[in-house]
Design a protein that fits this description.
It contains three helices and three strands. By secondary structure, the protein is α/β, with parallel strands linked by helices. It has a domain of 68 residues: NAD(P)-binding Rossmann-like Domain (Rossmann fold). Helix 2 links the parallel strand 2 and strand 3. The longest helix has 12 residues. It is globular. The N terminus is likely disordered.
């Protein structure tokens, strides 16, 4: 079971306060749990998924208003999303199956 969004984790400072985390595929399963956890740790969360309805349900569950509906398997859509983020992308963590080539702006 996920901790409540407003719970202070273990009485300590939230590790992700002030950071923005993008969770691709965040509408269910591991992606949804990841989005909940990083929100609990204080991050602003942007949840992405192809299906707008599932995405909006997930956003409510996570406690975020930031969503983006696009197909992350479509390289131009993925690249456009990251290049249009406010301030660009400073760093990324990915699963081994996710390619982020060409997304980083220096």
């Amino acid at each position: 079971m996920s901790p409540a969004i407003n719970d202070e984790p273990s009485g300590r400072e939230r590790e992700l306060r002030g950071q923005t985390v993008v969770v691709i595929g965040g509408s269910s399963g591991i992606g949804l749990e990841t989005a909940r956890r990083v929100r609990t740790e204080g991050a602003d969360v942007i949840v992405t998924w192809r299906d707008r309805q599932r995405l909006e349900q997930a956003a409510r569950a996570v406690g975020t208003e930031h969503v983006a509906a696009f197909d992350a398997n479509d390289a131009p859509s993925l690249q456009s999303f990251f290049h249009n983020l406010f301030g660009g992308l400073a760093s990324a963590t990915r699963l081994p199956s996710v390619r982020l080539d060409g997304l980083m702006r220096r």
